[in-house]
Request: fold
Amino acid sequence: MPELTQNQIAKLSQVSQATVSRVLRGDPRVNEELRQRVLSVIEKHGYVPDARAQSLRSQRTGTLGLVVHRSPKQLARDPFFSALIAAIIEFAGKAGYHLCVDAARAVQSRQAIYEELLRTRRVDGLILVEPQTQDERMPRLLEEGFPFVLIGRYEPTDAVYSVDNDNIGAARTATEHLIRKAHYRIAYVSGPRGVFVCEDRYQGYRQALERAGIEPSSDLVAWGDFSEEHGYRAMSRLLSLPNPPTAVLAVDDLVAVGALRAVKERCRAVPQQVAVIGFNDSPFCNYVEPPLSSIAVDIRALAQIATDLLIRLIEEREVHQRRYIVPCQLVERSST
Amino acid sequence: MPELTQNQIAKLSQVSQATVSRVLRGDPRVNEELRQRVLSVIEKHGYVPDARAQSLRSQRTGTLGLVVHRSPKQLARDPFFSALIAAIIEFAGKAGYHLCVDAARAVQSRQAIYEELLRTRRVDGLILVEPQTQDERMPRLLEEGFPFVLIGRYEPTDAVYSVDNDNIGAARTATEHLIRKAHYRIAYVSGPRGVFVCEDRYQGYRQALERAGIEPSSDLVAWGDFSEEHGYRAMSRLLSLPNPPTAVLAVDDLVAVGALRAVKERCRAVPQQVAVIGFNDSPFCNYVEPPLSSIAVDIRALAQIATDLLIRLIEEREVHQRRYIVPCQLVERSST
DNA sequence: CCTTTGCCAGAATACGTATTCTCTCCACGT
DNA sequence: ACGTGGAGAGAATACGTATTCTGGCAAAGG
Reply:
């Protein structure tokens, strides 16, 4: 049963298509009798507007694009992204927008996705999650004046609208927390170099060390990826150093869990001999043994701000504040 | 810098818009000289087709809809759904489709989403994840002949295309596994009644008991939701029975983790005194203490089959096999 | 009585693409 | 020489909606 069009409604009501459109849009300049005639026909036969035609005409699609800079496999594993996506779906939905999601790690396919979503006018705006420090698309997006919002950071210009965690402050807080627990050799197990989150947390870590007068050692910093496996291997290596760390700040809970595994495998007591703290306060932090201290990121706030910001950009084309920072919170559990 | 249209390209090339369209679509009936002229103009100024206009014209949007029957909050928490969504994004992308995701638990808003996505022709087809046993929209979708695929099951008619885990078989396998470990009082901590997954797993559980000649007891079955909290509370209650269970099959890893917490809180040894097994083989199964046995669901296979099936339905309107069953696999760890 | 004003609704048009229709031009066969 | 056929390209149209343009009609005003 194909959907009726305004034209068919018009014929059935014996009015013009324009009148049907006016009735539907609540235009006051339409005679009450005709209005009733049209409404009763619609009531009887049903009518749903064609979104494609509407968006061709109105230049609006009512859809936001979400591009996550991770491979689908990483996406599947990391609860942070699923929570973020879920929250964005929620807020976009509340504001009457749909959401088109894509994920891609390879630069090339990301490029294609941008073209696809944006230039083809499939979406009204874009939310980009954690682009990397050298991201070649940003200048083009800016130049084209296309509405987009970052979750994360972009350094080269401050013309970009973005929301970010206070990663530097949070990492500093976490490190200071470890220092207060009398740890002086503190390791940082990170994700890849060049990813803002990792670099920022590294900075916060360094700041805390410096403020406490601890000499930072590059031996205690391990760059890698966001996997449990990396956490395990990096921590294993660190623990076999002649002068091993007594505490570790992980860039991510998944990485922290891997580190935890390495520590337990060597039968070091947690937190007495080695303290571990992660990032994101993932649900599973409560379930691991011992429960993992972590930095809680306010995912819903990130999603909320990013979505609102983007929609304001789309609908009004102007927003005063460009950068938003969402504070994080230390969640202390038994691992520290 | 607004995107150029075929019309503008046509003017610049001094040909008609129809010719530009023909060149772009590779129509052979166009003079080589004109073709070159058009191509060089496009090369110089750039051209990206307008997806809205194309879909209005072609009746295809190149987008699939995904509707998950869970609240965004549950979505955020449960790694099963994030993995599923990620996999569907991946396969849809590979097939050249975009993905529009929505989630809603309330029946009413689900209704609205169906209307929105489907009747407005925003998507070419729909993937519905785990609808409930009494789902009032299925008949309407069928009647309208709209392409859609279920991940899960729908009983009232077998005219529906669907992919599902072998939930009955898997729950039977899990329960038999517990029986082999010499457990005779086995509890089943479930999600809500009326949700197919829960009902099917319940059936498998009962089958295993019956085959082993164990009298099933409704005291040992706890219906609830998919939360860790429910697992904890239900298991606490079960353990304080005069004749408590020595093993528990949980409908979900999250629920299993809650049950595990209840067991450990009472200082019962796992798996010696109480064995626990979950469902989904979530990443965190490895990290909890003790590592949680679970039934691994082949999420990527589910996603792959559902996506392929839907795309075939959209593009060819006919598929032979209607129901697909994906086998599950027991993953034995220390909790059993 | 004629013009102005205002209301209301149909006609026309635009959005951008894909396809059909139509016309011109040229080569070929009788 | 004239009709036939076919190639190739522009003109026209459709997809469905929203808006502007236009015109008819009646009431109001001179």
